[in-house]
Amino acid sequence: MSKEITADQTARYQQALAADPTAKVLERAVSHQGILATSADYASETDMTPVFSIDLDTGKVANQKQSGRCWMFAALNTMRHHLADLFHLSDFELSQNYTNFWDKFEKANYFYENVLATADQPTSSRKVAFLMATPQQDGGQWDMLCAIIQKYGIVPKSVMPETYNSSKSSELNSTLNLKLRKDAITLRKLVADKASDADIAAAKDKMLGEVYRLLSFSLGQPVDKFDFEYRDDDKNYHIDKGLTPKSFFDKYVDWDLNDYVSIINAPTADKPYNHTYTVEMLGNVVNGRQVKHLNVSMKDFKQLAIKQLQAGQSVWFGCDVGQSSERQKGIMDTKYYDKDALFNIDFSTTKAERLDYGESLMTHAMVLTGVDLVDGQPTKWKVENSWGEKVGTKGYFVMSDAWMDEYCYQVVVNKQFLPDDLKHIQETEEPTVLAPWDPMGALA
What we know:
Layout: H1 7-18, H2 23-33, H3 35-39, H4 43-47, E1 54-55, H5 70-87, H6 96-117, H7 126-133, H8 142-152, H9 164-167, H10 170-192, H11 197-219, E2 226-231, E3 237-243, H12 245-253, E4 260-264, E5 275-279, E6 293-295, H13 298-310, E7 315-319, E8 325-326, E9 331-332, H14 339-343, H15 351-356, E10 364-374, E11 377-384, E12 396-400, H16 401-407, E13 408-414, H17 420-428, E14 432-434
Parallel strand pairs: 4-6, 5-14, 9-12
Antiparallel strand pairs: 1-10, 2-3, 4-13, 5-6, 7-10, 7-13, 8-9, 10-11, 11-12
Helix pairs in contact: 6-8, 6-10, 6-11, 10-11
């Protein structure tokens, strides 16, 4: 039987506060300064001094501005670090707008295919409701960017620069989602009316043509051939003519993207370690690269990241950036805010509990560019963000090792750093399919 709050209960709570000599002081502080400022422990700043035993020089940070493309910026940053080292190009960037165009175009097609696959289900079904909640968005995962690059290549930022809508994406997203939901109505009706496969394909083709036009007006048309003209750090002039986006990637990045794999730490009961997982309805390129995660212990997770940093290569990673994080100072530390002491309430939960109960998931992707090892063990990590130079230390953040334990969920590493047993699992095991709303399907 449901029980209401009684007057006696309220009176007891009031009496307890009245008997606490610190209550009024804390009330004044919290009500005027806010919870975070009042609970901040500035001693954390001393521990998070940005000095690291392994520190890669990766140049100026990029700025995703008012868009949710952190996953894309972070992934392209790992590639530009490599390119900049090889060709002596400081402050060089790859075009995030180019990959953004193709990602949104492919996401539209991916959405249409999922609409058709679920057309026999009512709109009240959880899968259909999940699809319609956000037909597409800016976010994504590492494997999704690989799928775009493998199909379309990449280009320098100078070839396809940012536009208003790439840097401030809310208008484009709302307009595109309006169209996709309208198209979903049409596609579901065609299926319900038992239209032929040819008629459905023709309708979808028309829809995709409209999406292409919408994206072209908003982001500009992607180039298919270009010249790459630049001066290197020694002021030497170079020009490389007649490149395509794929030939540019092959020549200037020259990675086998199949070597770079997603490693996660999800300590929930439904995901035993040392097994692989994928997520239903998660992706962008139909018949393209599948999202595939290898779940490992946090010890293995960190050791793999360290090995790649020691080899001189930065590491893409995904985390829940809003937790225990001071944006302006660029500090991510579990000790920075002490809400438990402020309110005399135990807020503690385990990493698994936070995932299971919706308190945490991957919300942001950045790049590890350094680590401080003391007696062989990590104490803090250097993080390249994509929020411009006005936050942190010229855009770089410091993350405590304890914060990584609690709020980091994904790293991308070269398979060469995997021990043989994990490499075999990653390469050969058919992944378990998780539900579309599983937290490991969150888009950064």
